[in-house]
Write a structure and sequence with these properties.
About 40% of the residues lie in helices and about 25% in strands. The protein is an alpha+beta fold. The strands form two sheets. A six-stranded antiparallel β-barrel has the order 2-9-13-11-10-14. A four-stranded antiparallel beta sheet has the order 6-5-3-8, with no helix packed on it.
Length: about 350
C-alpha cells in the first residue's frame, strides 16, 4: 500500500508540470530586453485557378510541387472552335475593309467615261426622236401622215429626252462619289467587325491558363479530358513568397505592438536560422483564444490576431510550420511591405 501512496502524488506532480509547460509554451513570453516573443504557425495565400471558358481540357503542363513564374502557361483547353471563330471574324473584317476602301476611292475613271458616253448616246437618240416628231408634224398638215403617227413620234421624243436626264443624273452621281452617310455607315460596320474579332481573340486567349504570380502548384484538380467550366477550378496555386506567421496578441500588450515593427522568426526545422520579418497586420477586433489552445487560463482571455510577414525566396517556411516570433518593441519599423519580397 505504501508504494501506491507514493506513486499517486508523483503522477499529480507530473501532470501539473506538463500543464505548466503548456502554459509557458502557448502564452506570449518576455524575450530579451525590449522584445516580445509570440508563437504561431506559418500561413500562405492560395488561389484556385479556373478557365474563363467552357471546353474539354486538352493539356496540363505542370505537376504538383512545380514552381512556376508569373505568366507561365499552365494548362490549355481544346481550341478548334475558338480558332475557327477567330478566322471567321478576320474574314469579316477584311470584307468590311474592302467595302470602305471602295467607297473612299469613289468612281473609277472608266465608269465615268462610260457614263459620259451613255449621255452622248441618249442625247443623240433624243435629237433623232425630236426631229422625227417635227417632220411628221409638217407632213400631217399636207395629209401625208396620220395624227396617230405624230402622237407616237411625240411620245418617243419625250421618252428619249427622259433617258437623257437619267443618263446625266447617273454621270453626276459617279462624279460626286458616295455619300458621306454611306462612308460613315461602312466605317461603323468595319469597327463592329473589328470588335467581334477582338472578342473572338479574347475567347481564344481564355482557353489558356497562365500563372497570375510566382508560386508552387499545390493540387491538380482536373485532368486532360475533363469538362471545364468557369465555376470549376483546374489547379491550386500556393503563393509562398511572402508568408506570414499567424499569432495571438493579448489585449494587455496591444499598445506596445504596431504595424511595421521589425521581427525575427525561428523554426524547429532550421535550428539557429533566423528570418527577418515585420508586423504587417493587427486585427481591429478582439476574439477569444482559439479552440486549439486548451489551457483553462488562456481560454478566458481576449486576444488580437497578428500577422508577422517574412520574405521566403528559398521556400523554407512551409504552410502550417510552427514558428517563434521575436518582435523588437523599440524599433519604429522599417517600412517594408509585401511588394518588397517580389524584388
Amino acid at each position: 500500500m505504501k508504494p501506491k501512496k507514493i506513486l499517486l502524488p508523483m503522477v499529480l506532480v507530473a501532470v501539473a508540470a506538463a500543464a505548466a509547460i503548456g502554459w509557458f509554451r502557448l502564452r506570449p513570453a518576455a524575450g530579451p530586453m525590449g522584445s516580445l516573443r509570440l508563437y504561431g504557425n506559418v500561413e500562405i495565400r492560395e488561389a484556385q485557378l479556373a478557365f474563363n471558358a467552357s471546353e474539354h481540357l486538352e493539356r496540363i503542363l505542370v505537376e504538383e510541387g512545380d514552381r512556376v513564374k508569373k505568366g507561365q502557361l499552365l494548362a490549355v483547353l481544346h481550341q478548334g472552335i475558338y480558332k475557327a471563330r477567330v478566322a471567321e471574324a478576320k474574314a469579316r473584317v477584311a470584307a468590311r475593309q474592302q467595302v470602305l476602301q471602295k467607297l473612299l476611292a469613289g468612281s473609277r475613271p472608266e465608269e465615268i467615261a462610260k457614263a459620259e458616253a451613255e449621255v452622248k448616246a441618249a442625247r443623240a437618240r433624243a435629237k433623232a426622236a425630236r426631229d422625227t416628231w417635227q417632220r411628221l408634224q409638217r407632213l400631217v398638215r399636207r395629209k401625208l401622215a396620220s395624227p396617230e403617227e405624230v402622237e407616237t413620234a411625240h411620245s418617243n421624243a419625250d421618252a428619249a429626252q427622259a433617258q437623257v436626264g437619267a443618263a446625266e443624273a447617273t454621270l453626276k452621281l459617279l462624279r460626286a462619289g458616295p455619300r458621306k452617310e454611306e462612308i460613315a455607315a461602312a466605317r461603323a460596320e468595319l469597327e463592329a467587325a473589328r470588335a467581334a474579332l477582338e472578342l473572338a481573340r479574347q475567347n481564344l486567349a481564355e482557353t489558356e491558363l497562365h500563372a497570375p504570380a510566382d508560386g508552387i502548384v499545390r493540387t491538380r484538380i482536373l485532368e486532360p479530358g475533363d469538362m471545364v467550366t468557369p465555376s470549376k477550378p483546374a489547379l491550386t496555386l500556393a503563393f509562398s513568397n511572402p508568408v506570414w506567421v499567424r499569432a495571438w496578441l493579448p489585449e494587455s500588450l496591444l499598445g506596445r505592438v504596431k504595424p511595421g515593427m521589425t521581427a525575427t522568426i525561428t523554426t524547429d526545422s532550421y535550428p539557429g536560422k533566423r528570418y527577418r520579418g515585420w508586423v504587417g497586420y493587427i486585427s481591429p477586433t478582439a476574439e477569444f483564444t482559439p479552440k486549439n489552445v486548451e489551457t483553462p487560463e488562456l481560454r478566458t482571455r481576449l486576444v488580437y490576431q497578428v500577422r508577422i510577414f517574412s520574405c521566403n525566396p528559398r521556400d523554407e517556411l512551409r504552410l502550417g510550420m510552427p514558428a517563434t516570433v521575436e518582435i523588437d518593441l523599440q524599433a519604429e519599423g522599417g517600412g517594408k511591405t509585401v511588394r518588397d519580397c517580389a524584388r
